[in-house]
Specification:
Blueprint: E1 6-11, E2 43-46, H1 58-62, H2 71-86, E3 90-100, H3 102-113, E4 120-124, H4 135-142, H5 150-155, H6 157-160, E5 167-171, H7 182-185
Parallel strand pairs: 1-2, 1-3, 3-4, 4-5
Helix pairs in contact: 2-3
């Protein structure tokens, strides 16, 4: 029924390590939700931003370098804004975002940097401060933090946390061996 408005839930990863918008069966399923999103009245969307490993060329893929937390977040937010403006059956007053690990970081950054778009978010195992994350991964996409940590700081959710205006469920395990729990405490 296109005369009705439906809440929208975005699944985000946003990091250059993998894509989420694959052309495969089951791409819109989440093991974290016991129901059926579509049958329960939600529109469930996932999009890939610049930097995601999809066949869009070198410029697309390398745009993320020293821009994690900035360019990927802007791409997600602007695409969301465009979708909400294009499809009147999407309820712009009921927009949620969720993600895990890099997707948790993206969720935080989307809520913090674009509170006018997203009303609620669930961030799981988010990297709050890029300076605390695995250097083998982080330096591959952000360069070293020397002689300046500016790019790391600019893209870290903790830098923008004071702008939180909406609802956030921040979930993190104390036994996470990938993203240290300190990130949740920050």
């Amino acid at each position: 029924d296109v005369t009705k408005k439906y809440p929208v839930v975005f699944y985000v990863y946003g990091e250059p390590a993998s894509q989420t918008a694959a052309d495969v069966w089951g791409a819109g399923k989440t093991g974290l939700y016991a129901g059926d999103m579509a049958k329960d009245g939600y529109i469930y969307i996932s999009m890939d931003n610049r930097g995601a490993p999809v066949p869009k060329g070198t410029v697309w893929k390398k745009a993320i370098y020293k821009n994690i937390g900035i360019i990927n977040i802007r791409d997600q937010a602007m695409a969301t804004k465009k979708l909400l403006a294009t499809y009147p059956f999407m309820d712009k007053d009921r927009v949620a975002v969720h993600g895990w690990s890099g997707g948790g970081s993206s969720t935080l950054n989307l809520l913090f940097q674009y509170p006018e778009i997203y009303q609620t978010g669930i961030a799981v195992a988010a990297v709050a401060n890029q300076l605390t994350y695995d250097n083998i991964y982080q330096e591959r996409y952000m360069g070293t933090p020397f002689p300046t940590t500016d790019a790391y700081t600019k893209g870290s959710p903790i830098t923008h946390a004071s702008k939180l205006k909406r609802k956030l469920n921040n979930i993190h395990s104390t036994v996470d061996n990938n993203v240290h729990y300190l990130n949740a405490e920050m």
